[in-house]
Amino acid sequence: MEEWVGGIWHQFITRKASAEFDQARVNFTEVHKSVGIVYRALGGDPSKRVEAASTRDYLSRRSFLQKISGDNQQMSLAWQDEDSLRLPEYIAVFPDQALNADLYIWLTVLGAHHSGQFKHWAIDNQQLVVDILANFPALKARYQRLAEAVVQLRLNVDNLPIAEQALEKSIVEAILKPGTVSSFPAVNYAPQAVFLWLYPSAQTKPIEAAVTDDDFTEATSENSKKQSKTARKKTERVESGDDRDGMMIFRLESLFSWSEFANIDRGSDDSDDDGDKVAEDLDKITLSQQQDQKSARIKLDLDLPSSSEDDLPLGEGITLPEWDYRKQQLVIERCLLQPMLPKDSIAKKLPLHLQKTAKNIQAQFEQLQSLRYWLKNQPQGEELDLNAWLDFHIERQISPTAETGLYRSFRGNNRDLSCLLLADLSMSTDSHLDDETRVIDVVRDSMLLFGEALNIVGDNFAMYGFSSVKRSHVRFSVLKNFKESYDDTIRGRIQAIRPGFYTRMGAAIRQSTKILLEQKSSQKLLLILTDGKPNDIDHYEGRFGIEDTRQAIIAAKQAGLKPFCITIDQEAEDYLPYIFGRYSFSVMRSPTQLPTCLPQIYHRLTSQ
Question: Which of 42, 182, 233, 558 sits 20 to 30 Å CA-CA off 450?
Fold first, then answer.
């Protein structure tokens, strides 16, 4: 009964204390596509994400009801850092839903033209508004509507303490007439939130000395890292305390007696789902870095199999550069790529379930075969056209005739191109599409049908796979090089591929580019088959991997290659346009379509 009454009271007092208009609420999930388009269209950093921001502490003056309810201590405000623009999870500032939606657009415009750094929060925001309205006059009417609506909802200046009245007047003046206020008085409380402006970054900087490439663990990988579905959390890294210091206070009566002990299975309390719920409830996630002596630890890499169970390495490895977007430079010899052959691969025929599909695809590709024919009635050529010469000889006996079209010339429409297929063999390909089929099975079938199609055409092609475990171990599986003929040995290698580790895509693309450039064909096509974005368990996670892959693609295009990405990741449209370009990728809506679509995409790319 007490809990029921308490719940009713909490709902009542919270509703009374809230200054939001919940009936006009606009959620970020409703506008995230439109604000993303606006952000890119107005020149926002194409590598940044546009996502929801979690609430943050905001110590402004609260009303009596807000103090009773505990409301208004945290707010979801707009801000950005080097990775993303963070907009509120929802906006219910105005009683008009259209104004709330307009506020999302306006904040996005601000984010597209702001670097993310503030010298003076209020003065910089004013100048930002002035610059935007000068460059985009069409936004003046929208801003004026928002500014007037915001000012009407702010607290009455006369109801504020005298020390805060001057600040509030300055803020109102800055909102209505941006650029006219050059100084703001200091007070003990933060002013009422200005929802029309951006706020400084809410990120807490980590301890620099505590973070190295080798200290990152698998917890940051795409399979183990759990993120909020709606907003990212604020984070901070703190020094871990010395647990060997201090005095332990122990009360003997706190021990369970035998009669009090209950054998209860608490295993479900440690499930990942409960951990996710706890993380969602936290306002700030704090991590500590253990500083134990390195010599006192035994370092085991349980990711890598033993040499007897691993694929067969070819040589000592190849050093490759990697792009560091923070330094804006290519770091030489940053990665070590290891060419490998699939373990226990033996010559095999094409699987029975693919033979019918392979015949249909081969029939379609036969029209692309190189044709050799003679052009007749040519003014010059390799041979004399006897039929044309005989006609000329007879006609000359009757009347004077010009000596034209007496030769025939040999022609051949040879397809002068080379194609390299690079397949992502990361651990995510081990996931199941249904009870019997995994992603790796679809990739395997796709590569087999691709090989059958190109073999019937006679095009020069090669196939490789890749995965990685940090920058010092980028695995490059050799399935077929350009010098090998496509036979049962190659089919056996493809059927022997298995899920690997992570997706360090930049290094694999650079090596593939080098191999393709060695071919003498006039056209060079680099096909990349993947199921997710670039990532690894070191610093390669997030923007670092995307920027490195983008630079590898730019270098491939500058060298004369034609890169094209085929993916089954349904969220790929958020990052692939930035990496490959708007028309250089294709998203498979159903992974099961990949085996038949891959040859068709190749047909389209090489028939233009």
Answer: 558
